[in-house]
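Troubleshooting log. The previous structure file for this entry was overwritten by mistake, so regenerating from the original sequence record. Sequence copied from the archived sheet and checked twice against the printout by T.R.
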Amino acid sequence: MMEHKPVLLAEVLAALRVRPEGIYLDGTFGRGGHAAEILARLGPQGRLLAVDKDPQAVAVAQQRFGADARFTIERGSFTRLGALVAERGWVGKVDGILLDLGVSSPQLDEAGRGFSFRLDGPLDMRMDPESGMSAAEWLAQAAEEDIARVLKEYGEERFAKRIARAIVQARVQAPISRTAQLQEIVARANPAWEKGKDPATRAFQALRIYINRELDDLDDFLAQSVDLLAPGGRLAVISFHSLEDRRVKQFIRHQQRGEELPPDLPLTQAQMWQPRLRAVGKKIVAGAAEVAANPRARSAVLRVAEKPA
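Regenerated output below.
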C-alpha cells in the first residue's frame, strides 16, 4: 500500500501564504497532509475549517487534530463550505482556500472502496459509501446511451459506445458487482490499448466522477468561492485530469476578464468589468524529484488565483 503523500505541498504553502491569524479552508481533507502544514503555521487565533465526504477521512481528522481548538472538520462535500463559512460569520474574511481534487491514496489502495481497476473489490466508487448510488447499482439499471455518454463526457473515452454495449450485454449474463469484472469487460471491448495505460483507466475515471458528482460539485463551489475570500485572499486548486483543470482555468479567466464585450461599446472605465480574481502565475506541476518519490503527483496541476485587495 502506497503511503499517502500530499502533492505539491511546498507549492501549496507558498501559494496560500499562511498568516498566523488567518482563516483557511481545506475542501478535501483526505489524510491531512496539507492541513497539518497549514496548522503548523497558524497561531492561536488562526482557524482551519476542513470538509471531506469520506467518513474514514473525517475519523482521521478527528483523531489527529480533534483536540486542536483552531481546527474543525465537517463531513460532506466542499459545496457545503459556503454555508459553513456563513454560519461562522466568515464570508469575505477567508484568507485561503485549498481544493485537492481526485482520489486519495488510501481510497485507491483499499480494494473494498472499489476505486481501483488493479485491485478486485466491490464495485462501489462512492467517496461517501453511506450516501447515493454505487457504481454497480448504477450500471445495473442505466440505459446503454447513458453509460456511453458518461464514458465519453467524463472519461473522454473514444470507444464509449462500444464499451457501453459490452457492459449492457455482460449484465444480462451476470450482475457486474466487482471491479475485476468491469475491468475485464472494458479491456475486451477496447480495441486500441494505450501504451503504458490500463484500458479501463478512462472508464473507471468516468464512473467515479459521475457517481460522486465531482465536476458538478467543483462548478458549484467555484461559484461560491470568490465571495468567501477576503481581499487579498487566495484560491489554490490541485486537479488531476484535464476536465477538472479546464474548469478551474476557465473560471479564473472569466473572473479576471469578465464577459467579452464589443470593442466599440461606449462604456466608461467605471462601467467596465472589475476583476473579481487575478491569476497568480501560470499552472504549477510537480518537479522530477517529487514525481520520482510520489508517482501520483505526475498528473497534478496547481492553479492559484487572488482576490484583488
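DSSP finds 13 helices and eight strands in the chain. Archived copy saved in two places this time.
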